[in-house]
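#struct-queue
[09:14] JT: dropping the first one here, sequence first, then the structure tokens:
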Amino acid sequence: MAGMWRFGRNPARVLRGTDLETALVSASYGTDPLLRSGCEAVRGGDAEAGAALLVETREDPEVRAYQAEALGRAAVDRPDEVAALVEGGADPADTMLWLGHALLARAVAAPAGGADTTRADRKAFEAALHEARVPLEEAARRRPDDAAPWAALQTVAMGLGDREERERAWTEATARAPHHFPAHLTRVRSLAPSRGGSAEEMFAAAGAAADTAPEGSPLSAVLALAHAEYLRGEQRRLLREGNSAYIAAMSLGRLHGEAVRELFALARGWASAAVPHVRGVQAHHLFGWAFHRAGEKDLARWHLGAVGRYVCDIPWAFFGSARAEAALAMAELGVDPRADRGTGTGSGIG
């Protein structure tokens, strides 16, 4: 299966997951050095550095959403400073998009987003999502052609369990950018059985996105996301039924058969024509997770060898600590992120 991928490995060197964890860097502030530098400046109190970055993204909906997400996480404790930028002459649409993402990041980071939280926590979580919705809707109003606010509003609606608003946001986002990665990512997640959807709906949406993705786009990786969401839901069900974590993990087994063949065809299609994309590292993690789960070691090794030191929460965090899960998989495959063969923002495919 792995004939068309190039990969290198030193089988004599034994790696341990715990050795690799410290080498991995979260991709939550992006994988582009300029964006990461901007996020660090924002975290240090320089909100204007973030505003300058967003100005440059208006013609690229993928980069705009990606940077708004990262800058939102960087400003999670500084939403007032972002809001104040408007008084200093910053573009209101850019600022409202960023503020919405900062408030959304704050809502998602709260423990109230989990399944085992109290009623009061849930109410606080919902209030935080409603707060994030206001600037995002204002951003959408001020820049009618921008898909980024709608992609974020879809996330808000998913968190609130508001099906009607979720459908509207999905329609609006894809009307402006039909192959928008975060819009499709949230679409697949929102249709998961654990959120009131069905496995059939979820896999149909993921399959359609993958089948219609432009040549060289990492969007086909959303099918791997659907498998991760499905397995996470099944694992939670087994745990609720009283099974131990070990039994639950063992019961799920591997991806196999037609599912793996389909993922292989999609990954091969992307690999053969990949273009640099801000979500390239995310796609490598999704495919890498899926092939590791399927026991396709060569394919998993190739994808995880292309991410460099960056680790994405999705899908690893579905099954534990993202850093620990990814490091363990890399160790099992003989991938050493300390060698840093990854390409950061691109696909890693030459």
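[09:21] JT: and here's the second one, same format:
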Amino acid sequence: MLWRPFATLLVLLSACARPDTLPPQIGLVEPAGSGVAPGRNIQAEGYAFDPSGVVGVWVNGQPVLPEGEQGKKLARFRFRLQAPVSGQVEVRLQAQDGAGNRGERVIPLVLDAAPPRIRVERVEREGGLYRVFGQAEDNVGVARMVLRVGERYTPLSLPQGPSVPFAVEAPAGASLIAVDAAGNRTVRRIP
């Protein structure tokens, strides 16, 4: 007699189960910031997520999901993309889950052929050192800045963005290097 309430509860709980009707979520992790230098061969990375497990991923119609990732709830994939010299690239991502639902996402990539600009606003000299204040600017975004003194490169701890303020202290002959999200770079000597 004790099993009847448990059996009834199991029947009721199984009746509440909902079928999976939601498509998988899909996106790109790299390239960061969607900045791409024209004409380059790009290594891109992405993910697809679905509680039923991801069984397939396609980029521009080509399958890219490795066998070891099939069936995982969070599946990772990589692919190469050749960016044209001009225009805008759209990457079409598709994923399918174990229940047959398909998700799709179109991601535009900005072709960035313009290198960042290093704008010096003020220079102060004290002995053999220069203090340089300014802004690094880029149409897509400055990814990093480095101070080069001779053969030594020192990364500057700066935020990323389209306009990044900086202040450095360096000897004469040193250089500031700004790199944008697409890998374009600009070098400016101090002073």
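[09:30] RK: nice, looked through the second one.
[09:31] RK: The two ends are 91 Å apart (CA to CA).
[09:31] JT: good to know. The chain has two domains: 21-111, 117-189.
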